[in-house]
Amino acid sequence: MKKLLVFAVGAYSLLMFSGLVFAQASAGKLAARACSSCHATAIICEKLGNRNAEVWQQTVARMQGNGAKLTDADAATIAEYLATAKPGSKYLCK
User: Fold this and answer.
1) Domain ranges, residue 8
2) What is 30-61 written as a DSSP string?
């Protein structure tokens, strides 16, 4: 019984981690696609790790105001991704 519990917790943890990795990859690809339609992503990559979530939310909202075609849900996803992405993110900083 104890082994089954350990296995179940381990499998659940693995699935949760896999889901987070997949979500991070999807958000990174969304950010790359949305941002690169107007400018090079290098300008964003320079700022990764230097701005908090509130600043990224303001930046993405400003880009929406400038014509970026994003739903509010996509804008929130991108802002959250940018706030947590590390410099050199493989999805955005190629």
Assistant:
1) 2-84
2) HHHHHHHTTS-THHHHTTTTSS-HHHHHHHHH
Residue 92 lies in a domain: no
Residue 91 within any structural domain of the chain: no
Highest mean pLDDT among 1-5, 7-11, 74-78: 74-78
Using one digit for the tens of pLDDT, what is the confidence trace for 53-81? 999 999 999 999 999 989 999 999 999 99
Is 89 inside a domain boundary?
no
Q: Looking at residue 16, which CATH number applies to its domain?
A: 1.10.760
